[in-house]
Amino acid sequence: MALDYLDFDYSEDFDGNGTWDAMAAVRPERMPALRAELAQLLAWAHAAFAGRQGPCEDGGDWDYDLQAQDEAGQPLHARYGAGTLDLEGAPGGGLTTVTLTLSGSPAFGAALRERWGV
User: How many domains does the chain have?
Assistant: First the structure.
């Protein structure tokens, strides 16, 4: 699957651990496609690096931060767990902005680039 909504910026620390930051802003009619893209990416990370989620400084191979907000900047519910993405859209047909930050080891980064082309 190609990533249509998430366009990642990359940075790296001195140990070779990477951080990928993406932001997507969509209207309600695009929320299902954005949800699907986020769910597939996070499901892949959980499956490919099963049991290895956690900050690199604590021995984990990868971690993530998922957040959403409406046009006024009010936080919206955004959570991935047990294979399910729970992502609230902006009320009233407004724009929903979602940010996803992935961080990971060099092995995670190589797998992420190979699978998703980021």
Answer: 1
pLDDT at residue 2 is higher than 90: no
Tell whether the model's pLDDT for residue 57 goes beyond 90: no
**80 within 8 A of 42, measured Cβ to Cβ:** yes
The domain in which residue 46 lies consists of 26-78
In the block, tokens 């609230």 appear at 88
14 in a domain, yes or no?
no
Contacts of residue 32, defined as CB under 8 A and 6 or more positions apart, other chains included, come to: none
Q: Is 113 within a domain?
A: no
Could you tell me whether strands 9-12 and 62-69 are parallel, antiparallel, or unpaired per DSSP bridges? unpaired
Q: How much is the pTM?
A: 0.93
Q: Is the residue at 46 inside a domain?
A: yes
Closest CA to 62 of 72, 76, 52, 47: 52
Q: How far is CA 97 from CA 14, 23, 63, 87, 105, in A?
A: 31, 7, 20, 11, 27
Measured between alpha carbons, how far is 9 from 114 in angstroms, rounded to an integer?
Answer: 16
